[in-house]
Automatic annotation (TrEMBL):
GO terms for biological process: carbohydrate derivative biosynthetic process. Gene3D superfamilies: Glycogen Phosphorylase B. The keyword Glycosyltransferase applies. The keyword Membrane does not apply. Residues 221-374 form the Glycosyl transferase family domain. Keywords: Glycosyltransferase, Transferase. It holds the Pfam family Glyco_transf_4. Transmembrane segments: none annotated. This is D-inositol 3-phosphate glycosyltransferase. GO terms for molecular function: glycosyltransferase activity. Residues 30-209 form the Glycosyltransferase subfamily 4-like N-terminal domain.
Amino acid sequence: MTDSATPDDPHPAHRPLTIVIAADTFSPDVNGAARFAERLAAGLAARGHDVHVMTPSVKHSVHGTFHEIIEGQRLTVHRPPGWRWPPHDWLRFVLPWMAKHYSRRLLDEVAADVVHSQSHIVLGRALTRIARQRGIPVVATNHVMAENILDFTTLPPLLDKVVVKLAWDDAKRTFDMSRAVTTPTRKAAEFLESTIDITGVIPISCGIDKRNYTPNLTPRPHNRVLFVGRLTTEKHVEVTLAAIAKLAPELPDIAFDIVGGGDQRRALEQTAQRLGIQDRVTFYGRVEEDDLRAAYTRADVFAIASIAELQSIATMEAMASGLPVVAADAVALPHLVHDGENGYLFAPGDVDDLADKLRRVLTASPEEYLRMQQASLDGVEIHDIEKTLDTFEKLYRGEPLDG
């Protein structure tokens, strides 16, 4: 694909592109990678591009090509037969030995200018290889850390290490076929470069449209803690539950809202009961987008104890909602939460430290609390989704990036 707009050039620099996005997780899944893929696809479609998404079908028996409304945009979604992964509460996959077949069929039907892989595991892996054979440029984005996978292999720990090494070796082969490799933050890029023998990984924020969120800047009592995300072990929601229990005697109105589903929900409900705080904790499960945004507006502080975040869209949504954030000092979260500015960082797994930082936010003076709110709103500005779309458009066209 050439970049200059000459009379003989079939791909002028700013004509709409036909983009195929490979996503092992997509709507109706609720997780960071799925939400990013949805926002990216919808944002590109809103700019006039012809966007096709390839992702596993929700039900094995209902597969094919569909027109779906995602983030207000009509997208063409190709859903080959998906199979449930039993250890996981929602994860689906296309049979690996069939993924290339469906990839060939899709690229026979769609004259793609570029393929964007959101996963190097099944569909992204297959589409990358078929696109490479046909001379179609590929851009790859990595959303994966080992902690995201190990809970669901059902293998002994020793074999887990072998599986992870084999997976990263295969990821490198996939990434080597790509025009560019991206990941949401500089910390995530450094993680990927140190994990496999690869250089030049480009950090590009997942992006957020802050206009979709409603900060509450009016003075009020502060007692409501919020977490949004999948209820899996690497999120360490039990650490926040323990901190809430520690604070309950001195903050009698403290409450904890948990939005999201996952395989750990029952265990977390039992933990809340064991700690004697079941009346203070509400498990909402998966909710509609309007209810999610209302939960952010209703909350007073966002708490995230996760140790496996390559960016954390939920944290950005909390910031766009004007919430101070208390986050584990791990992986990419320090890129979003600046200690003492828009909230606080705590030592991962340290219940006492988390309780202390939550106490600081919930008992802050009105002036101090408003300052943290404004710092969150200011800090999310650099993650504007339009900047993210600009950058990916340049990568798709093979244009140099600014800076």
